């Protein structure tokens, strides 16, 4: 048994290193720069490691059921993309997202939950350290260095990517916190570096996301005490308050922009609000229901051009993202896809809450909720997960790490068996 545990630990560490390297490799790249063949080879190599673990029919069934939703979204994206824009570029875009996403799923299956989170943390720390190191070339003074190092874009060339990477690393680090002192003191320095990187990005969205993540962690800690109900009411109150603020942001645009202008330039917020409005107006009925796959923002897309027209008139854009992960999901997969995504997220969070009541394990319980808070809050005005290869990798890692632990095949079989039992019981009872 010790040899087996050591084997799994070494394997997990190697997988974590692979995740971190792939994270740093993909972070500065935009979708047009990624070599599809390279990513496909990486995906195939990790897939071989997963296949080696499949010993029984149940193992094969488990991995097939895990990939079933991926197959659904693949078919939906291919069909809608080629219908809207029948071109090789449309198919390449879909296949690129698929290859990176599936690579993340397979990496998480090999690594396991804890080592997957460790890989995200190490990758984010490495990217942040590189950003600070590369900015030494522009050093003028201490104050100038801290104010401009990350705002210039860091290793990725985009400060939004820098703070998104840091926030993902912070969420992973907080998920790995443990009562053991050595782990706590080992995690504090890298988390502190990522917090510093995020704060000095100068992004209001990043700071709001950080505060929301910290609030989520505090509520999760409170739920592990006798004040569980208080934590539940507080979480509900915070969610309602956030929803009201978002509603006010959309409905009282002029007043909100006037308030924002007191503290900072309102141009970024105004551009986002205009882009949301123009995107929703550009959707047709079929697109709203089934989505546009990968074609909405591709060059030459008629509906993308239609969405950008109002923005060009105000000297904004053209944009190739909606600046909201929620709208990006709607544009890509339509209402049908959004419902499926919502069901998967709900299942993961419900499973995590069940783990808290049964096993009392912090990482298994807290990680889904922490990432849901971090992505859910920043995703209101950010599209990192939708348009950057590193974002697709993160989605694949979280999908494999969280859904892989749910044993979807067992859930499906249990539900089918329950329905058959109820049906048979009804037929036996008779009229």
Provide tags for this entry.
431 residues, 0% strand, 18 helices, single chain, mainly alpha
Walk me through what this model shows:
The protein is mostly helical and 431 residues long. The chain has one domain. Helix content is 79%, strand content 0%. It is globular and about 60 Å long. The relative contact order is 0.13.
Q: Quick recap of the structure?
A:
The chain is an all-alpha fold. α3 runs antiparallel to α14.
Give the helix/strand layout:
Layout: H1 2-26, H2 36-52, H3 57-84, H4 88-134, H5 142-148, H6 159-176, H7 181-199, H8 204-223, H9 228-251, H10 253-263, H11 267-282, H12 285-290, H13 302-313, H14 325-358, H15 362-378, H16 384-387, H17 389-403, H18 408-429
Helix pairs in contact: 1-4, 1-17, 2-4, 3-4, 3-14, 4-6, 4-7, 4-17, 6-7, 6-8, 6-15, 8-9, 8-15, 11-13, 14-15
């Amino acid at each position: 048994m010790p040899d087996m545990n050591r084997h799994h630990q070494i394997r997990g560490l190697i997988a974590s290193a692979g995740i971190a390297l792939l994270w740093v490799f993909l972070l500065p790249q935009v979708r047009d720069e990624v070599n599809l063949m390279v990513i496909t080879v990486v995906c195939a190599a990790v897939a071989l490691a997963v296949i080696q673990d499949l010993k029984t029919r149940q193992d094969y069934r488990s991995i097939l059921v895990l990939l079933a939703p991926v197959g659904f979204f693949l078919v939906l994206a291919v069909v809608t993309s080629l219908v809207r824009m029948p071109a090789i570029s449309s198919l390449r875009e879909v296949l690129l997202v698929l290859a990176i996403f599936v690579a993340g799923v397979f990496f998480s299956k090999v690594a396991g939950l804890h080592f997957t989170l460790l890989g995200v943390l190490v990758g984010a720390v490495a990217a942040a350290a590189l950003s600070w190191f590369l900015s030494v070339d522009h050093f003028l003074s201490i104050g100038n260095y801290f104010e401009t190092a990350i705002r210039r874009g860091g290793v990725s060339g985009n400060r939004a990517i820098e703070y998104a990477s840091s926030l993902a690393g912070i969420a992973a680090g907080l998920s790995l916190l443990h009562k053991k002192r050595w782990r706590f003191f080992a995690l504090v320095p890298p988390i502190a570096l990522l917090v510093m990187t995020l704060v000095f990005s100068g992004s209001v969205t990043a700071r709001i996301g950080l505060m929301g993540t910290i609030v989520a962690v505090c509520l999760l800690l409170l739920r592990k005490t006798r004040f569980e109900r208080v934590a539940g009411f507080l979480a509900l109150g915070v969610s309602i308050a956030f929803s009201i603020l978002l509603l006010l942001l959309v409905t009282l645009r002029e007043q909100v922009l006037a308030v924002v202008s007191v503290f900072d330039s309102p141009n970024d917020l105004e551009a986002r609000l205009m882009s949301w409005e123009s995107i929703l107006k550009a959707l047709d009925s079929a697109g709203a229901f089934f989505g546009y796959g990968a074609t909405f923002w591709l060059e030459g897309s008629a509906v993308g051009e239609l969405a950008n027209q109002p923005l060009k008139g105000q000297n904004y854009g053209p944009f190739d993202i909606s600046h909201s992960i929620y709208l990006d999901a709607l544009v890509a997969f339509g209402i049908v896809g959004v419902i499926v995504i919502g069901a998967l997220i709900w299942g993961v969070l419900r499973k995590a809450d069940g783990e808290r009541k049964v096993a009392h394990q912090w990482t298994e319980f807290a990680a889904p909720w922490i990432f849901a808070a971090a992505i859910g809050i920043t995703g209101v005005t950010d599209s990192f997960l939708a348009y950057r290869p590193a974002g697709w990798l993160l989605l694949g890692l979280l999908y494999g790490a969280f859904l892989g632990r749910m044993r979807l095949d067992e859930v499906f079989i249990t539900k089918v068996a329950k329905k058959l039992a109820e049906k048979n019981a009804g037929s036996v009872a008779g009229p």
